[in-house]
Amino acid sequence: METVAVLDFETTGLSPNYGDRATEIAITLVRDGQVIDRFQSLMNAGRRIPSEVTYITGITNAMIAAAPPVAKVMREACQFVGNTPVVAHNASFDRKFWEAELAHLSMSSASVFACTMLLSRRLYPNASNHRLSTLVQMLGLPQSGRAHRAMVDAEMTSHLWCRIQQDVVKTYGIASVNHDLLTRVQKVSRLKIPTFLQSHQPRSPVK
Q1: In this structure, is residue 203 part of a structural domain?
Q2: pTM
Q3: What is the rounded average pLDDT of the residues 35-57?
Q4: How would you write the chain as a 3-class SS string?
């Protein structure tokens, strides 16, 4: 069975290109529709959190001051993920911080990211929007705790990932829906999704 690492960051702002840093990371390992392991930690990167970000996340500067150094946390997180393929909601955001924080440690990552937001735009076009909380409510997925804390968002993304796999199996009759297939699906235009996925249906044996 394939294992994926579902990752979520909380940060001081929107982009490491503007000096923003990570404040929290959470990772779930998901296999066969179940979360089998978890990693979560606040981290101190020496950057103050703006008040508007604290309002959204609930993460305060006092919490960060008492947190372990970013270098320690990111080394542990990188070891936890290893070579496992990665999933995130709005993955371009999390991938930027993942790569930027590892770069601060002179480390690199070859992790391939699948994006549940891009996939949802293609597979659930009638959703009012494709925010994680909206999709969780629309699809009746489990939710516990405060949104915009890393573990809560990682677990919601895990449930969404599993639901996407289930819906592709059910709708298109594909026996195995893995990370590699879905990273290709997220690059296909919405109108071409049925043709693309139908080409991956098992063929009837020739008699």
Answers
A1: no
A2: 0.94
A3: 96
A4: CCEEEEEEEEECCCCHHHCCCEEEEEEEEEECCEEEEEEEEECECCCCCCHHHHHHHCCCHHHHHCCCEHHHHHHHHHHHHCCCCEEECCHHHHHHHHHHHHHHCCCCCCCCEEEHHHHHHHHCCCCCCCCHHHHHHHHCCCCCCCCCCHHHHHHHHHHHHHHHHHHHHHHHCCCCCCHHHHHHHCCCCHHHHHHHHHCCCCCCCCC
- Number of domains present in the structure of the chain: 1
pLDDT of residue 204: 45
Angle between helices 150-172 and 132-139 (to 10 degrees): 50
The amino acid sitting at 29 is L
206 domain-assigned = no
Report pLDDT for 146: 65
User: Is it the case that residue 92 has pLDDT exceeding 60?
Assistant: yes
- We report the CATH number of the domain holding residue 46 as 3.30.420.10
- Token pair in block for residue 52: 């508007």
Does 35 reside within a domain?
A: yes
Residue 111: band (very low, low, confident or very high) from pLDDT cuts 50, 70, 90: confident
Mean pLDDT of the chain: 93
The 10s digit of each residue's pLDDT in 127-146 is: 999 999 999 999 999 987 76
**Residues composing the chain:** 207
